[in-house]
Amino acid sequence: MQELFNYFVNHKSALKKRHLPKSVAVQLKRLTRHQRDRLKLQLTETAKTLDELDKSQAIDWLQTCTQLINEHAFHFNRVFFSPGNEIKNEIKYLLEHAHTSVDLCIFTITDNELAQKIKVCHKRGVKVRIITDDEKTTDNGSEILKLAKAGIPVKIDHSHYHMHNKFGIIDERIAITGSFNWTYTATKHNQENLLATSKFEIVKQYNDEFERLWDSLFTF
Question: d(Cα 26, Cα 155) in Å, to the nearest integer?
């Protein structure tokens, strides 16, 4: 984020053209809402101390910075359906492009291809955590033991009822949820749905629920 801050401060004249280099635009899209808010606050504080600009110029510069940050913010809201590969391909894409974290609260995982994508995330340094149902870990074809052996933290419930959630949070900025179980049957035969959204209020609620469950469940 410091690199973005430096760009806005050191390219005041260029900003008037409202055109950002591709590298800067990409970095802006990767920011979470919290990071965008921190960047705006940092720029606001800086605008108060810019000796080379008068008050009116400083306000104009800050407004331009804020508008560019908002224009290049990441927004993603889509719904996917099965049978067919639409849902599975979207999950694979999100896992492949995760940068920092993948938190999955999934009833069951038996799809080997999706399990492999999870492992690859872990191997390239993405922080991966999985919550799943205790009874489903012993199902024929369950990938949970393999994922745990790969070094991925896994937690399970111990109750007479199911941990029946099917949601995930990618990089703390995208939430995915729906009826879709991570199984071959769900992809090939079932009528299923998946919602993927970057809406901050929704992502935060799913993230809070994941953390609550993570703190209350048992290590696999």
Answer: 34
Give yes or no: 166 in active site. Answer: yes
Residue 133, SS3?
A: coil
Q: CATH number of the domain at 77-219, out of 3.30.870.10, 1.10.600.10, 3.30.450.20, 3.90.1140.10?
A: 3.30.870.10
> What does the alpha-carbon distance between residue 162 and residue 37 come to, in Å, rounded to a whole number?
38
Residues facing 182 on adjacent strands: 109
Q: What single-letter DSSP state applies at residue 100?
A: S
Give residue limits of the domains in the chain. Answer: 2-71, 77-219
Active-site hit among 19, 29, 164, 189 = 164
Phi then psi for residue 151, to 5 deg, are 100, 10
- Annotated catalytic residue: which of 88, 117, 119, 166? 166
Please report, for the chain, how many H helices and E strands are present, in that order.
10, 8
Torsion of CA 180, 183, 188, 194, to 10 degrees: 20
Decide if 171 is catalytic: yes
**Residue at token pair 């949970």:** 144
- Residue 1: what pLDDT? 85
CB 170 within 8 A of CB 102: yes
pLDDT tens-place string over residues 159-189: 999 999 999 999 999 999 999 999 999 999 9
